[in-house]
Amino acid sequence: MSLIAFSDASELAAISSGRYTGNVSAEWTIGGRPNGGYLLAMLGRAAADAGPHEHVIAASAHYLRSPDPASVDIEVEVLRAGRSASQLRARMLQEGQLCVEALFTTSNLDPESKAYWDRGLPTPEIADWEDCIRIPARTPIGVPVAIMEQVECRLDPAILGFASGHPSGDGAVQGWLALPYDETFDPLALLFAADALPPATFAIEVTGWVPTLEFTVYVRALAAPGPVRIWQHAQLIDGQRVDETCFVWDRTGRLVAQSTQLAGIRLG
Amino acid sequence: MSLIAFSDASELAAISSGRYTGNVSAEWTIGGRPNGGYLLAMLGRAAADAGPHEHVIAASAHYLRSPDPASVDIEVEVLRAGRSASQLRARMLQEGQLCVEALFTTSNLDPESKAYWDRGLPTPEIADWEDCIRIPARTPIGVPVAIMEQVECRLDPAILGFASGHPSGDGAVQGWLALPYDETFDPLALLFAADALPPATFAIEVTGWVPTLEFTVYVRALAAPGPVRIWQHAQLIDGQRVDETCFVWDRTGRLVAQSTQLAGIRLG
């Protein structure tokens, strides 16, 4: 195991206009499968590179197939290059098979902006970084989670019952996330952060793979250096599908990203 | 003004494989601009028709340009036709210009399914249908809203302060929605329902147009006949953008759809 920076794990090489290659790192996987947010960050890197705006502010991905940790091709098309925002489509293929297709809106986030109104945000109480407990690189049911050797994901002790077979039942997980080498979370890393915690459904019942069908992230602000604080909760399990909503705050307490996803689950 | 059923207002004609035309109805507009959920429903109709599965369960749209209430072309590509779910891309163009591009996951919703776990859902108290007040076809700042002559959108009196210049400040709107002729909300109509209420930001400050940048909807179950109950709330205004989250329950109290959107706003 060697530590691979997020910016290296999601690095792309430009092949020609709108075409890139990258390598899905085996070190950034869960049970051998790449994290969906990590794949979205690779697509977002291509979109930000191909378009006229620097930052992804909205990303929506539909997941078709999980790529192997190996080489992938990425194709980007600029749908509209606007003055204040642009829209792009990016696709990840492996051996010619489409794995993920995503739409992006990009813009330039203003480092000087401040929240105008935030009364609608949840205000979960999350233990401090030093009081949270680092997730080991193996799930409660024994699946290896290589990515947890890369990132430092610390969970609030209040929600750790699931690890000993006593889930809280409230469908929420919370804690902190730091990147390897304590890299600052740029907007692409925030796409990953919004999918980095264990499934919130572990706080209901621990199951196997919870494959993401759709994942939407909004990046709301540039994050301060340092780890981010995350609260992720499930709302409804119906028809063997679950939604999860995630909020990411930077170290200063500013909401920097939020997401929603729909995933399959073997419950119900 | 004549009453146009939702299924007629969103009707498409198939031109060839994966190609459709439709007509954006001037009667389904706000200040002359079509509702974003209505446009998504037209795209979803094309996606459900072109693919092997009957129901849209996840839809993600990025909005590039607002089409005029006139003829539009829709192109659909099946990205993956799976056993239990499929993914498709649909695009709406007007006079050759791309207006909306969206990704869909489709499946077959089981009319017999039941919610397995719903403890994570919000439980807003919303007044009964007969105690809610129908929205007039003109906004508080005088913009004509033709669509409110079509649908019957009733707001809870508890949140109506904005109409007289006294917004509640909590960023939430709630009420009920019925379609013309009391048509049952099928999954396509639910895509519209999740964007049908006035902006939740009206409960903060009444502004002009709040243009949607991104809109994601999950359809969670088939709705019972009759009107649906809706709660929509804003969480954060930052950098002249606001997110809004919406929940749609059918008459029996079952959550049938949920959505999130990112929109531009002239505040902050």
User: What do the pLDDT scores of chain A average to?
Assistant: 95
Number of helices of chain A: 4
Largest interface: A-B, 58 and 58 residues
Major beta sheet summary of chain A: 13 strands, antiparallel
- Strand order, main sheet of chain A: write it out: 1-2-6-7-8-5-13-16-15-14-12-11-10
Q: Please give the radius of gyration of chain A in angstroms.
A: 18 Å
Number of strands of chain A: 16
Q: Which term fits the overall shape of chain A?
A: globular
Strand and helix order of chain A: HEEEEHEEEEEEHEEHEEEE
What's the end-to-end separation of chain A, in Å?
38 Å
Q: Could you state the oligomeric state of the chains shown?
A: homodimer
Alpha-beta content class of chain A: mainly beta
Uncertain stretches of chain A? none
**Strand percentage of chain A:** 35-45%
Describe the structure.
Chain A has 268 residues and is mainly β. In chain A, 11% of the residues lie in helices and 40% in strands. Chain A has helices at residues 6-9, 36-50, 147-150, 187-193; strands spanning 12-16, 19-23, 29-30, 33-34, 55-63, 71-81, 86-94, 97-107, 115-117, 133-134, 152-155, 172-178, 212-219, 228-238, 241-249, 255-264. In chain A, the strands form two sheets. Chain A has a 13-stranded antiparallel sheet. In chain A, strands 3-4 form a two-stranded antiparallel sheet. In chain A, helix 2 (36-50) packs antiparallel against helix 4. The first copy, chain A, is globular. At the A-B interface, strand 5, strand 8, strand 9, strand 13 and strand 14 of A face strand 5, strand 8, strand 9, strand 13 and strand 14 of B.
